[in-house]
Specification:
- The complex is a heterodimer.
- In chain A, 34% of the residues lie in helices and 15% in strands.
- Chain A has four helices and four strands, in the order H-E-E-E-E-H-H-H.
- Chain B is of the alpha+beta class.
- In chain B, 51% of the residues lie in helices and 8% in strands.
- In chain B, strands 6-7-1-16 form a four-stranded mixed beta sheet. A three-stranded mixed beta sheet of chain B has the order 9-8-15, with no helix packed on it.
- In chain B, strand 10 and strand 11 form a beta hairpin.
- Chain B is extended, with a radius of gyration of 33 Å.
- Classes of the chains: A alpha+beta, B alpha+beta.
- The interface between A and B is medium-sized, with 16 and 15 residues.
């Protein structure tokens, strides 16, 4: 408990210091609870998510960093490895490949990487996975772009 | 190099061959010339058993014990497989695959600064409060400890990886032990136990004895073939399926048979076909003739076809929607079949049961016979040696069991359930006759032996006793041969020519199910040979296991059995000696 708190506090300071370094990620800690974090990440360029801003919610366990944080998308996203309804993310480093050397910041980076490189063979969103697996890249991209526009971009006008 | 390993194997084998060869009856054929191939591993000898395999790997690859263990756990304690990977793919591959890194970094680590930054807690810690693993990653002791505890709690003691990202290395168990025991000694014990038990749980050559309540033992076999074994707790079981010893039934047959006997599925089957529940009192009603307007003993009348209630005044013709002639035909066929299946099952089950029951009754005979032997031995007579009585009795028990299981075997071998498509009707008939002839011969000889053994030989004169002795010995030899032949017939002529199903049975052992020998003894000998080369990873003396620093809780188990009691599977000579 104490260890996780101390470590999160360090991470917090690190985040403040590095804010300018990585403009794609904005990590914010909950005012009253250091175990609750949110992040805003920019959709990587040259992907259907480009131009979108996606919100992530982190729930950090007491055993952190020995156990991984639970992360999910709050913003709707059409991606093979993200559950369309709950926003749950299927990413190995958040499950069995977790290493305590990861930080919340690096988890965000990993998620951005996942957005750019979906794994259609272990889909949480089967529709999206099937589009990619059947080779319909255009179909997938237009769906993903549509949802990015609908959910992850500021409403115009 | 492989030769070394194989030849040294003999040293590990412990044998009580001597006692087996003291077998007194010259007429008995010694079928198993080989030493015992099964060994009991108790809580106390588990460490020793592990060490044997560890040593092979340590000697072969010149690695330290914890590396050997990591390699062996990765290869599920299959030393031969590990060596073949080593030969085929090389040492580097073998090590990398299992997550073993051998001291490359420790030596090159010259940067002994006074403090390091731990990437986990992100604190600066004095370097003497941090630990560098073999893989080169260094974190503070606190973080390591927490990591180990989390992993042990998750049940991953056997493969605790380094905390660094994508580092496949397995943590040095000595480090885990030291760090964890400082914080949570009970957790360190748990870790220790997991490591030890990995030898049993991850090893195809070792299985826990299935006794309930658990005797705490495990059995190790030398070659991974199908066999039946007796644990030192007295339980006999099939090493393959862990249920009671059931040869000449195959494991699948036995599983099906046991289930069938348990839930009397045939009865249920017959009832569903032959009876219908009364719509009023719900008792099953059997139709004993007459028309299809049935009345239950409770007075309720109902239609046999649809099971619906009708009034007494209704005539058959006046009930609407009952033109189900075709339906009725099917029903008849079905009931015919069910009846036939049930009779068939009953035939085999009755015989199976009869032999099992005789076996139980004859177990009582054991006591009376012991008394008779005692009386006879007390008499001043020329006949001194009564081991033939016990031999005969052992043979009787053993063959009774075989006989009873042979009926379960026949039920499936010649039934439709398993091998319907394997044989033509004609083939099946021939095979069935072949088998039944042998079974019958065996059966009559077993009954003969049973009868002879019941003779009140304690009241007979010497010459008569000698005569009975000859009869018992002859019958025993005949039965032994018949059993042997029956097993051969099953293996070669019946199961051997199956195409689809693969059924195999444990080989026939003339002396009964092999009793696993205690591992303890052999290790003591072995340790005296090679003691001293041991690495001091853990207090492990080279004497007996009592000094090994491992909790030694010897139970009186060993003494409970054998002494004063007759044991079916001990050579009779040995039992008599003890008495």
């Amino acid at each position: 408990m104490q260890a996780s708190r101390a470590r999160l506090f360090k991470e917090y300071k690190e985040v403040q210091r590095e804010k300018a370094v990585d403009p794609d990620i904005q990590l914010v800690c909950d005012d009253s609870n250091i175990f609750k974090w949110t992040a805003l990440i920019k959709g990587p360029s040259e992907t259907p998510y480009e131009g979108g801003v996606f919100q992530l919610a982190f729930a950090v366990p007491e055993q952190y960093p020995l156990q991984p944080p639970q992360v999910r998308f709050l913003t709707k996203i059409f991606h093979p490895n993200v559950h369309f309804k709950t926003g749950e993310i299927c990413l190995d480093i958040l499950k069995n490949a977790w290493s305590p050397a990861w930080t919340l910041q690096s988890v965000c980076r990993a998620i951005i990487a996942l957005m750019a490189h979906p794994e259609p063979d272990s889909p949480l969103n089967c529709d999206s996975g099937n589009l990619l697996r059947s080779g319909d890249v255009r179909g997938f991209q237009s769906m993903a772009r549509m949802y990015t526009r609908l959910a992850a971009m500021p409403k115009k006008g | 190099m492989e030769d070394d390993y194989f030849s040294s194997d003999d040293d590990y084998q412990c044998s009580d061959q001597e006692s087996m060869e003291d077998f007194e009856e010259p007429d008995f054929k010694l079928v198993t010339a080989k030493g015992p191939t099964t060994q009991v591993i108790t809580k106390e000898s588990l460490l020793v058993a592990q060490k044997e395999d560890l040593r092979k790997v340590m000697d072969m690859l010149s690695v330290r014990e914890h590396h050997a263990r990591t390699l062996l756990i990765y290869h599920r304690w299959d030393v031969e497989k590990l060596f073949s990977v080593y030969v085929d793919r090389g040492k580097a591959f073998l090590f990398a695959e299992a997550g073993v890194t051998v001291d490359e970094h420790r030596a090159s680590d010259s940067s002994l600064s006074s403090s390091i930054m731990c990437d986990i807690c992100m604190e600066d810690v004095p370097s003497d409060e941090s630990t560098r693993m073999d893989c080169g990653h260094c974190f503070c002791n606190n973080c390591w400890t927490e990591h180990f505890i989390v992993k042990i709690n998750e049940g991953q003691s056997k493969r605790i990886r380094c905390m660094a990202h994508k580092c496949n290395a397995i943590c040095d168990e000595a480090v885990v032990r030291t760090l964890v025991s400082k914080k949570q000694p009970d957790m360190a014990e748990k870790f220790e136990r997991f490591l030890l038990e990995s030898y049993i749980e991850d090893n195809k050559r070792v299985k826990w004895c299935p006794s309930t309540p658990h005797c705490g033992n495990a059995i190790r076999i030398e070659d991974d073939q199908l066999c039946e074994v007796e644990c030192s707790c007295g339980l006999q079981f099939c090493f393959s399926c862990l249920s009671e010893a059931h040869s000449p039934c195959s494991c699948l047959m036995w599983e099906l048979w046991a289930k069938k006997c348990r839930d009397e599925s045939e009865t249920v089957n017959w009832m569903t076909v032959h009876t219908k529940p009364c719509p009023k009192c719900h008792k099953p009603v059997e139709k004993n003739g007459g028309c299809n307007l049935v009345s239950c003993i409770c007075g309720q009348a109902f239609c046999w076809h649809c099971g619906g209630a009708t009034g007494r005044e209704h005539t058959w013709t006046s009930i609407a929607n009952h033109s189900c002639g075709r339906y009725k035909e099917d029903q008849e066929k079905k009931s015919e079949r069910a009846k036939r299946d049930l009779y068939r099952y009953m035939h085999y089950h009755n015989r199976y049961k009869a032999h099992t029951d005789s076996f139980k009754l004859e177990s009582k005979l054991k006591e009376t016979i012991q008394e008779k032997v005692a009386i006879s031995e007390g008499k001043d007579s020329k006949v001194r040696d009564y081991s033939w009585v016990n031999n005969g009795l052992g043979r009787l028990f053993r063959s009774r069991r075989i006989l009873s299981y042979s009926y379960a075997f026949a039920f499936y071998m010649f039934g439709d359930e398993l091998f319907k498509d394997e044989m033509t009707e004609k083939e099946r008939e021939i095979k069935q006759h072949l088998f039944e002839d042998q079974q019958q011969q065996l059966e009559s000889n077993v009954e003969r032996l049973s009868k002879i053994l019941e003779e009140p030989f304690d009241q007979f004169a010497d010459s008569k006793i000698m005569e009975i002795r000859m009869q018992v010995i002859n019958a025993s030899v005949i039965i032994d041969n018949l059993c042997q032949k029956m097993y051969e017939c099953i293996e070669n002529d019946l199961l051997g020519c199956l195409q689809l199903g693969t059924h195999s049975i444990a080989p026939y052992k003339s002396k009964g199910i092999e009793r696993a020998s205690e591992l303890q003894v052999c290790w003591t000998n072995k340790a005296n040979d090679t003691g001293g080369t041991e690495e001091v990873d853990r207090p492990s003396g080279s004497g007996s296991s009592d000094e090994s620093g491992y909790p030694s809780r010897k139970r009186a188990r060993k003494d409970d059995i054998g002494v004063g009691l007759f044991d079916l599977n001990l050579p009779a000579a040995e039992v008599v000696d003890r008495n």
